[in-house]
Design goal:
globular; five-stranded antiparallel sheet; alpha+beta; Glutamine Phosphoribosylpyrophosphate, subunit 1, domain 1
Length: 237
């Protein structure tokens, strides 16, 4: 698989929807993840990321304008010991609870499907990072309808052991803008991970479509110690 430019992928797609990037820093010392959200409706754009313990949650920027919170208010990132969970919906909690009850990442997601927002049937994308005592690996998942058929759910999980420095994988909800929105296809895209947390954050934010971007979360986790740095950027300030 050829490595793609993450920034070019974002610049050339006005509406990838929500996206997850997971990989390893160029110097090989940090586990890296990024999660962004975009929106076309007033309800979707009326959001910000806020810190919530070791994770984050979405919050209405203007509570008076909040309409249906069911698919837009959730915790995209939660931390459970040496595991960092990143998803595009409330399946973050499903994975967190499942693991505490002895289930695996995949088993936890067996209880969920794509989002009930026909005709789009937005895929549920999820990632989990294992960082402990110098060991790092990650998995990514997508639950999607079968070519827009809500009666059939397709489940795909991708595992990445001993990730390569300066590389990561990028998965997003939609192939591009449209009506209905076409679901992501194929395996997560191999992309480059460049720079420190500040430059990486800036590059992603500046590459997202200006009209549609809403919020961005980036975290660098030290693979040796588990200590982390976080950056949050919100269009609504």
């Amino acid at each position: 698989m050829n490595q793609l430019s993450l920034m070019q992928e974002l610049q050339e797609n006005s509406y990838p929807g929500r996206g997850i990037v997971i990989g390893k820093s160029e110097d090989g010392t940090k586990a890296v993840t990024a999660y962004f959200i975009m929106g076309r409706s007033t309800n979707s754009r009326n959001r910000v990321f806020v810190e919530d313990g070791e994770g984050i949650r979405t919050q209405a920027y203007d509570p008076s304008k909040l309409e249906d919170p069911s698919l837009i208010i959730y915790a995209p990132v939660r931390v459970l010991n040496h595991l960092t969970i990143v998803t595009n919906g409330d399946q973050t909690d499903t994975i967190y609870t499942g693991i505490t009850e002895g289930l695996t990442f995949e088993q936890s997601l067996r209880t969920r499907e794509f989002e009930p927002d026909g005709p789009n049937y937005t895929p549920r994308i999820s990632g989990i990072m294992y960082v402990k005592d110098g060991i790092y690996n990650y998995r990514m998942s997508i639950l999607k309808s079968h070519n827009g058929n809500p009666d059939a759910c397709c489940r795909y999980t991708f595992s990445y052991e001993n990730p390569v420095s300066g590389e990561g994988h990028f998965i997003h909800t939609y192939m591009h803008d449209g009506n209905p929105l076409p679901s992501f296809e194929g395996e997560p895209k191999l992309v480059g991970i460049t720079g420190d947390i500040d430059s990486f954050t800036e590059k992603i934010w500046n590459s997202l479509n200006e009209e549609n971007k809403v919020s961005l979360f980036v975290r660098y986790i030290d693979i040796a110690t588990g200590q982390y740095e976080t950056r949050i950027v919100n269009k609504n300030q």
